[in-house]
Amino acid sequence: QVHLEESGGGSVQAGGSLRLSCAVSRYTSTSICMAWFRQAPGKEREGVANFDSDGRTNYAESVKGRFTISKDNAENTLYLQMNSLKREDTAMYYCAALTMSCPPMSDPRLYIRFGYWGQGTQVTVSA
Question: Is residue 113 over pLDDT 70?
Fold first, then answer.
């Protein structure tokens, strides 16, 4: 049973930065895909970025060049560095895990593949 706990959300002005953290525990699988999702009010949950067990990373087109996903294996922590934030980045951000290789970001039902979720952390970007 994988346990995930996010932190680091908050309010920031457009153009600013935030770093989200996700503490990961209780997993033993050597193959694990870690990911960040977000969900804005009235919208479906969408994949933001993922980090595969071989170190490969993938990003949604909307965040490429602005967000960076990384993982500290020693600290068992997943990060999402968000720079040049826009109002449309406002959402609840979730950390998720899947005990297999990462599915393609283009998978239209990506979030359904993931079985482990954190409680979410709110990110609000104002003008």
Answer: yes
